[in-house]
Amino acid sequence: MKLPVSTEWVLHCATTLAQLEPGVTASTAQLAQYYDLPAPYLAKQLQALVKAGVLAATTGPRGGFRLARPASEITLLQIVEAVDGTSSPYECREIRRRGRGALPPEDCRNTCVLAEKMAEAHEAWRRSLTGVSLADILASLPPSAPARTRSRLAGTS
Amino acid sequence: MKLPVSTEWVLHCATTLAQLEPGVTASTAQLAQYYDLPAPYLAKQLQALVKAGVLAATTGPRGGFRLARPASEITLLQIVEAVDGTSSPYECREIRRRGRGALPPEDCRNTCVLAEKMAEAHEAWRRSLTGVSLADILASLPPSAPARTRSRLAGTS
């Protein structure tokens, strides 16, 4: 059970964008340089965040990305599911209906109790990540972080 | 983020073995026929459960598998981690130390707050599955299930 490597990238990039002044954007090239990431692949991930409503993209020579909503309204779950999808890691292929032990259809009207318990665990994971917003992450950073982030991102320091 | 397909197999096989009379075992061939699964690959998964202390294997012409402990002492987490390992789905490669935004070592003494929140979510998932034992699963089955399971597994019905 592995999340894509890009999960770390998008969590960090969203945290970085959350530290910009209102109205300011950052380009894929700036974010790629900031974390030393491959720009073409990062661009694809940032587009996934736009599609999920986490980021907004502006076009033109000064175009780039910014948060689509206030940091307090963006959760870690939204960011992670933007690049990995929402499906549960457990796949129930209904083997209870197969082979010599196959249960009759009338015994399979309810979800298999094992699939149910696996789904509950996935919901516990989702709930944990829903409980953390980008604003919570920013609040845990040192007070000097936003100024440093902005100047490094702009390449002025 | 996907668990192996065999996760469903081992959860069901352990539930099946939990329904046998004390001292009775089932062979790989019996379990494979019961769920119509490929025996060689299932054998590998059952060995992983033995290694994890969930099942005990007996050898000889009547050899097979049984639970290594009472059903109340075997959790879904132990079964799932026997085939998928214990590592978190989130991989932190410390990109905070890389590129133009690289943080100095003194700012990286603590775990990155994003990695910390992802680890908390994984712990919530593990806690959920630790809270469910095979005895809990058995308690949710219809009272007629164990007798049916035994006769189908033995091939006598």
Automatic annotation (TrEMBL), chains A, B:
InterPro entries found in the cross-reference section: TR_Rrf2-type_CS, Tscrpt_reg_Rrf2, WH-like_DNA-bd_sf, WH_DNA-bd_sf
Name the record gives this protein: RrF2 family transcriptional regulator
Gene3D superfamilies per the UniProt record, alphabetical: Winged helix-like DNA-binding domain superfamily/Winged helix DNA-binding domain
A Pfam family assignment: Rrf2
